[in-house]
Design brief:
By secondary structure, this protein is mainly alpha-helical. It has three domains: 147 residues, 3-Layer(aba) Sandwich (Rossmann fold), CATH 3.40.50.620; 113 residues, Glutamyl-trna Synthetase, Domain 2 (Glutamyl-tRNA Synthetase, domain 2); 96 residues, Arc Repressor Mutant, subunit A (Orthogonal Bundle). The protein is 44% helix and 9% strand. It contains 19 helices and eleven strands. Strands 3-4-7 form a three-stranded antiparallel beta sheet. A two-stranded parallel sheet has the order 1-2. The protein binds glutamic acid (GLU). The site of glutamic acid has 8 residues, from helix 5. The site of glutamic acid (GLU) has 8 residues, from helix 5.
């Protein structure tokens, strides 16, 4: 069976990592069966509507490679895909229920409803609107809410993640279908749209689980076949037992992009947050995810967000792109992440720098902090040498002497390449009797004054003879 899934976000802000799985999993399921994923914008809560949020959602999906088959921009047979533009349809469906005696126009003023609520609180009984249903509801007219006329009863259903569920009649109520402002509630609009769009799998956050019996009652009232219901557990904050929210630093997905996380890594990490295929595999391409994903392996308890793991996955992906697609392909992703001074150098030089440092990057923005000395002379900081744990045992005279010997040996190199550089350093070690950690640290720090650099011979090869010798000479003079 071809699956028709949907991602149905409300444009109330950016998509953060706590809710993007509701887009990833529908995408995977749709593509497994050669079906389709629909993007539907649920913008009926006009008070929570945020200008620009739809564009952010589209941007996020496109970046992650989660293209939708129907929806805004691409169109499709179910247009329009903004619920705010489908108001007439919801009213039509609600009126069908009124005609069938399964919904009613509700003229009760809100003060009266508050009174009912207080009454129940005083009596310590749960407030159920169906106990206060108006006896002779009027004809519907604009400005009046329409409520469902529920039939309280027990329900059983299967949730693809949560398993077999059952509830008693106490959870059924006369939920609002159409609000006073003429817009439908989420509870109603999604039932209508899922039916109109022939959705086969409703995949959404677990927060909708408690309302499911009311949705089942609506399917029944309309004589609809229930779609498969898939409740996705919360993603938990790094500590504690609460769900990841914007306050716990749940950044927008695109902020990670701007911080140098690759789309492939983000998709990989998020898809595996609370799902695995039963093997030890941790790195998946989108195609592999499509092939291997299955609903029954979604964990039914919350998965914890772990940024360290995300960055590890990103590091793996940076390597994978370099190793499988080449330096140029990775370089093309790095354009916004170089230190400013890199602009003065050729693309070829930047690619050479990238080629010796890529396997140390956790994010592309590490390039900013890790490669400065390839493009600018580093600030001399003699203490970094004299206080270095390997070098502090040496006197200043010994350090100066060692540097000078290094300069002489390196100047003699005919062919300046990684191999000859390594050979020269090795000979120098034998000749001076110094430990590798001493000689290599001294040369490395003198060239970079950075806490880290790639393999020394590679660093020197890229820096070139002139820059290498000039920097070493400068340090030798300053010790
Ligand atoms: N508009 C709902 C939300 O953003 C979507 C729930 C659903 O997928 O049905 O939470």
């Amino acid at each position: 069976m071809k699956a028709i899934t949907r991602f149905a976000p409300s444009p109330t802000g950016y998509i953060h990592i706590g809710n993007v799985r509701s887009a990833i999993y529908p995408y995977l399921v749709a593509h497994q069966t050669d079906g389709k994923m629909i993007l539907r914008i649920e913008d009926t809560d006009r008070e929570r509507y945020v200008e620009g949020a739809t564009e952010l959602i589209e941007d996020t999906l496109k970046w992650l490679g989660l293209d939708w088959d129907e929806g805004p921009i691409v169109g499709g047979p179910n247009e329009p895909y903004f619920q705010s533009e489908r108001k007439d349809l919801y009213l039509e469906w609600a009126q069908k229920l009124i005609a069938a005696g399964r919904a009613y126009a509700d003229p009760t003023p809100s003060e009266k409803i508050d009174e009912y609520r207080r009454e129940c609180a005083e009596k310590k009984v749960p407030f159920l609107y169906r106990n206060f249903r108006p006896e002779n509801p009027p004809e519907w007219e604009p400005g009046m809410p329409i409520r469902f006329k529920t039939i309280p009863k027990a329900y059983e259903w299967h949730d693809e993640v949560m398993g077999d569920m059952h509830t008693g009649p106490e959870v059924l109520d006369d939920i609002i279908l159409i609000k006073k402002d003429g817009y439908p509630t989420y509870n109603f609009a999604h039932i209508v749209d899922d039916a109109e769009m022939n959705i086969t799998h409703v995949m959404r956050g677990v927060e909708y689980l408690s309302s499911t019996p009311n949705y089942l009652a609506l399917y029944e009232a309309f004589g609809l076949v229930r779609p498969k219901l898939v409740s996705l557990p919360h993603i938990l904050a790094p500590t504690g037992n609460k769900k990841l929210g914007k306050r716990d630093g749940a950044k927008s997905v695109t902020e990670y992009r701007d911080d140098g996380v690759l789309a492939e890594a983000m998709l990989n990490y998020l898809a595996c947050l609370g799902w695995n295929d039963g093997t030890e595999q941790e790195i998946y391409t989108k195609e592999e995810l499509i092939e291997k994903f299955s609903l029954d392996r979604i964990q039914n308890s919350g998965a914890r967000y772990d940024e360290t793991k995300l960055l590890w996955v990103n590091g793996q992906w940076i390597r994978r792109i370099f190793d499988t697609q080449g330096a140029r392909a990775l370089y093309d992703r790095t354009v916004n992440f170089w230190p400013e001074a890199a602009a003065n150098f050729s693309e070829d030089y930047r690619i050479r720098v990238l080629s010796i440092i890529y396997d140390r990057l956790k994010t592309l923005s590490d390039l900013k902090t890790m490669t400065g000395y390839f493009f600018e002379e580093p600030e001399l900081d003699v203490k970094m040498i004299t206080e270095n744990k390997f070098l502090k045992k040496l006197s200043e005279a010994e350090i100066e002497d060692l540097l000078k010997k290094a300069i002489v040996a390196l100047s003699d190199i005919q062919d300046w390449n990684a191999e000859s550089l390594q050979e020269t350093l090795n000979n120098l070690l034998a000749e001076t009797g110094k430990k590798p950690a001493e000689l290599f640290s001294l040369v490395r720090i003198s060239l970079s004054f950075a806490p880290f650099s790639p393999a020394l011979n590679l660093t020197m090869e890229v820096l070139g003879r002139e820059v290498t010798l000039a920097r070493l000479n400068k340090v030798a003079r300053s010790i």
